[in-house]
Write a structure and sequence with these properties.
Layout: H1 3-9, H2 14-20, H3 23-33, E1 35-38, H4 44-51, E2 60-65, E3 72-73, E4 75-79, H5 85-109, H6 119-128, E5 137-141, E6 146-150, E7 161-166, E8 174-176, E9 179-184, E10 191-195, E11 202-206, E12 209-214, E13 217-227, E14 230-233, E15 235-240
Antiparallel strand pairs: 1-11, 2-4, 3-6, 4-5, 5-15, 6-13, 7-11, 7-15, 8-14, 9-10, 9-13, 12-13
Helix pairs in contact: 2-5
């Protein structure tokens, strides 16, 4: 266990963990790359406990086999409400740190939408818009599986940032399976970014688009994310999406 993980293992609440993150560094990395790593957000034991939920269908509202929908190969399950305490707590605690970044991005891109300070306020807006189904999910990949490049948009309301936490250890539990982000700028070829993660690391990234400074002000670039082919072993990831779905 790393020194950071040892510290976080003794931290009682997700709010305390969120308070330990260098949010200035996260905002800077998001601004320059569209993604930022938050190391050791979960301990190895917590990662194993969350991954072990996968066979328990009572914890989930739906099960998606990617190949049936052209999403790639692999599968995932959407959690039901109430969410597991740790996942629900992180969703609630990370959102207020990310909302100012999202609002600043929208201002720069000329988008009128502004996000409330607290997650429950944002969920209330989602629910009034008919988006009432929880979106945090648990993904499972085995050899040959992959996730096609995509965007997680589930309705008219979509929070522009989301978080994925790697629950398995690269090189020990699986090989391959890198987190991949692509960025398409106007009149330019697509830029790929491979984000290295260890067990318990979280990556926060743009769901749809982000602002980039140009010679005439900021303009929007389009982003997609996915996972490269698993070569051996089994890979579990938990996705924390802040908007609910229709």
């Amino acid at each position: 266990m790393t020194a950071i993980a040892k510290i976080k293992a003794s931290v009682a609440t997700p709010a305390d963990r969120a308070g330990m993150i260098d949010w200035t560094a996260v905002a800077d990395e998001l601004a320059s790359q569209g993604a930022a790593v938050m190391p050791a957000l979960l301990t190895p034991e917590e990662c194993r406990e969350i991954a072990a939920l996968y066979p328990d269908d009572k914890r989930f509202r739906s099960h998606v086999v990617m190949a049936r929908h052209g999403f790639g190969k692999g599968e995932y399950k959407y959690f039901s409400y109430p969410l597991p305490d740790l996942i629900g707590g992180l969703r609630t605690s990370l959102y207020p740190r990310l909302a100012p970044i999202a609002n600043e991005w929208n201002q720069r891109m000329g988008i009128d939408t502004r996000y409330p300070a607290e997650h429950q306020e944002f969920l209330a807006l989602c629910h009034r818009a008919g988006q009432q189904r929880p979106t945090p999910l648990l993904l499972q990949y085995v050899p040959g599986d992959y996730n096609c490049l995509h965007q997680d948009l589930y309705g008219d309301l979509a929070f522009p940032l989301q978080v994925a936490i790697l629950l398995s250890e690269p090189g020990r539990d699986f090989t391959g399976g890198e987190f991949v982000l692509t960025e398409q700028r106007p009149r330019m070829q697509t830029r790929p970014e491979v984000v290295p993660l260890r067990q318990g690391d979280a990556v926060v990234f743009a769901v749809h688009h982000r602002p980039v400074k140009g010679s005439r002000g900021s303009y929007r670039v389009n982003l997609r994310h996915g996972v490269s082919r698993i070569r051996s072993g089994r890979r579990h990831t938990v996705g924390v999406i802040f908007h609910d779905a229709k």
